[in-house]
Amino acid sequence: MDARAGTRPEPDRVLRELTAYTLHTPIQSELAYETARLALADSLACACEALSYPDCTALLGPVVPGTVVPYGVKVPATPHTLDPVQAAFSITAAIRWLDYNDTWLAKEWGHPSDNFGAVLAVADYVSRLRRHRGEAALRVRDVLTMAIKAYEIQGVLALENSLNRFGFDHVQFVKVASAAVAAALLGGGEDEVLSAVSNAWIDGPALRTYRHYPNTGPRKSWAAADATSRAVRLALLALRGEPGYPTALSAPRWGFEDVVLRGEQIVLDRPLGSYVMEHVLFKIAFPAEFHGQTAVEAALRLHPLVRDRLGEIERIVIETQEPAVRIIDKPGPFTNPADRDHSLQYMSAVALVYGELRYEHYTEPVASDPRLPQVIARMTVVENPSFSRDYLDPDKRSIANAVQVFFTDGTSTERVLVEFPLGHPRRRQEGLPLLREKLERALLVAYPVRQAERLFHLLVESPDLLDLAVDHLMDALHRG
What we know:
By secondary structure, the protein is α+β, with helices and mostly antiparallel strands. The chain has helices at residues 13-24, 30-50, 54-57, 84-96, 116-132, 140-160, 171-185, 190-203, 219-239, 256-259, 275-279, 293-306, 322-328, 337-340, 344-354, 371-376, 385-392, 428-446, 449-461, 470-477, and strands at residues 73-74, 81-82, 104-105, 109-110, 313-320, 379-383, 401-407, 416-418.
C-alpha cells in the first residue's frame, strides 16, 4: 500500500493568498468603488452596442431553446433568462464582443471587465434564490466589491506571469479570478473557494491560436465568455462538495507551473488590494486592441495633413512598444473583422484615411477600400526601446506610439507621439465626459428612449445605486 495514501499537502501559497484575499480582505478605497461603478457602466455600454451585431447575438441565450430556469439570471438588454453558467457566458460575450471594454496591460494583458459576466450572473442568481427564501438580496455594492477583487486577482497575476510567451491565452486569469469570486458569492468558505480556484488552474489555459494569423477568428470575442462560464460551473461544483487540489500549481511534472510555464513559478508581484481597479484602462475612443490606441490617436491628428496626399506618401513610420510588435504588427492579408481590429497597421491606416475609427470600419465596404492596403504597404513598424521600458514601469505604465508620414517630395509631417491613451488613469478626467457619452449612446441602441434615460441616470448619477438590490438592477436592465 502506498505510504502516502490519505495524505494531502498544504495548499500552494498562491492558492492560499487568492482564497484569503477573496474571502477576508475588506475594500476600503473609495476611488476603487468610484472606478468600479464606471467599469460596470462601461461594460454594460459595450454589451449594448454589441447586440447590434447578429454574429454576437447568435451566441447568446440558452443552450437548449425554450429552457425554463427557476431563479434564472436576466441577461441585460436581452429577453433571455438563463442559468448562471450560461448567463455568465452570454453577459461576458456581449461585453467583450467589440473589443471595446476596459483593459489591463503588463507582462500578460487582458480585459478585467470580462469578469462582470460571472459576477453579475451569480449575484443575480443568489439574490433571486435568497428572496425566494425570505432572505435579503445582494446589493450592487456587493457586485462592485467582487468586481474589484476579480480585477485585482486577474491584474496582479498578469503583472509578472506571462502566458502569451508560452503560446497560451490570458483568459486563464479571467477563469481563476471569476472562479474565486463566484464561489464566494455563492456562500462558499475557504474550502470551496480554494476548490474552485485550484480546479480553474487545473483546467489549463486555451491556446492563443484564434488571436493570430492565419487563424484569427471570432473565438477571440467569446474566449473570455467561455472562461467565466467555466468558472461559474467550477464554483457551483465546489459548493456541492467537489474537493480542491492543493498543489495544482506546484506539483512536480503534473502541476500548472511545470506543464504550462515549463518550470517557472506563478508569483503575486504585490499585495492584493484594489490597485488594478484604480489603475484600469478604459477604451473610450476606439474599439481597437489597446496597444494600438495611441497610434490611432496620433494618426487622427495627422489625418488633416495626409488625407489629400495619400498618393504622395513615400513611407509611414510607426514607433511602438515590444508587445505591440509581437501581437498586432500585422500588415495583412485580413480575412475578417477579428483580423483587422488586431492590426496596428489597419487601425492606423483607417485613422489616416477616414479621420475616425469605429467598428464598422472593420467590415465591408470599408474593408475593401483599395486605399487602405496602399497606405499599409508604406508602413514600417519599429520597436522604440524607451516605449517598452515605460510600458512595464509600474509608476508610468504608458502605452506609447509615435507616427510620422514622409512624402515623395522630401517633406514630412511632424512626429506625433502619444504616450497615454484617453482611458489611462493619467487622463481620467479628460476621458470621463466621453465615457458618459459612450454609455448614453449605447443605451439608446439597446433600449427605448425613456428606459435608456432612466438607466443612464441610475448607472451614472443616482446616489442610490450601490444600495439597490442586484435582482432589481438586472430587472431594470432586462428587455423581457
